[in-house]
Amino acid sequence: MDCIEITKELIKIDSSNLEGANKAIDFCEDILLSQGLKTEIIENNGFKTLICTIGNGDKKIILNGHLDIVPGKAEQFVPYIEDGNLFGRGSADMKAGAAAMLTTMLKLKNEDLNCKLQLQLVTDEETGGFNCSKYLVDNGFRGDFVICGEPTQLGIGVQAKGILQVYLEFLGKSAHGSRPWQGTNAIIKAYETFNAILELPFAKEKSELYDCPSINLSKMEGGDVYNKVPAYCKMCLDIRFLPGQDPQEIIRQIEEVSGVKVNIHSIGDAVKTKVDDLYVLKLSESIAKITNNNAEIFGQHGSADTRFYSKYDIPAVEFGPTGQNWHGDDEFIKVDSVYIYEQMLIDFILNISSGL
């Protein structure tokens, strides 16, 4: 099977749950074993990760792909091609990218590579990546450069914002709704604080790839009846901070302007791969060679498993084929882009093998 046929078979597997995601791992392992490659299955808290390594040398390139998906409708697990697009749940995010990584391994297995090439297929990226990619990195499965095959329209996402999800609790004073001046409205206090947060120094900072961090007021919880001034409000914020920004400094600024404690719900590292990293430049050369166009270099607003590698100062990028509507009802991947993506991966690996 080529990369598109493998993608079709993967789409047929509902891997939105642990059983299905592990089934997808088993499917990919069978393909690799049938072609004479050695594999290793690592299981952590029930989640399977597939490892396969070829080549020799001091340098190691990691191809990281996730086979888990978000839930979909029954018809989304019946793949079909229309107007050059392959439709199905997970087609773009990111079974096509993973399939192309797998076939890249197969096509390079007989090459005398002067570098190691390691395929990592994981099963929990959509739910945080803590049981697979984070577990791998923390236990020594590292390399010199990592490609996560997220759908990037054949561009290179070299950086990604960090995650800081917090909540603040505000206290007011209850009063009758007809006499709000006799109370202190906790919801208003929270909203006024939110507007003040938008004007803080960290919120105005820029970087090479970003105009500013993003600050989303995601939830407000307060009040219980119409005719009462609310004495309590919980405000939840989803902050995506820039590479180079310190989340602890962000917390300090928010506490200073709000006068209340910042409670951390979740925190995740930014991806800080440099635009002029040697591996990024080599990958850009392969893209330009095959497309006759300069590679698009950009920063992602969301996050992926790249952040676990970046924490250890390993340059990691998101780089994958062209698709649309992932997590949506009409998710698809452009068939031609998957073949082109495979060519780019192969060219890049062969260039690294010949020396940086």
From TrEMBL:
<dbReference type="InterPro" id="IPR011650">
    <property type="entry name" value="Peptidase_M20_dimer"/>
</dbReference>
<dbReference type="GO" id="GO:0016787">
    <property type="term" value="F:hydrolase activity"/>
</dbReference>
<feature type="domain" description="Peptidase M20 dimerisation">
    <location>
        <begin position="160"/>
        <end position="257"/>
    </location>
</feature>
<dbReference type="Pfam" id="PF01546">
    <property type="entry name" value="Peptidase_M20"/>
</dbReference>
<dbReference type="InterPro" id="IPR050072">
    <property type="entry name" value="Peptidase_M20A"/>
</dbReference>
<protein>
    <submittedName>
        <fullName>M20/M25/M40 family metallo-hydrolase</fullName>
    </submittedName>
</protein>
<keyword id="KW-0479">Metal-binding</keyword>
<dbReference type="Pfam" id="PF07687">
    <property type="entry name" value="M20_dimer"/>
</dbReference>
<keyword id="KW-0378">Hydrolase</keyword>
<dbReference type="InterPro" id="IPR036264">
    <property type="entry name" value="Bact_exopeptidase_dim_dom"/>
</dbReference>
<dbReference type="GO" id="GO:0046872">
    <property type="term" value="F:metal ion binding"/>
</dbReference>
<dbReference type="InterPro" id="IPR002933">
    <property type="entry name" value="Peptidase_M20"/>
</dbReference>
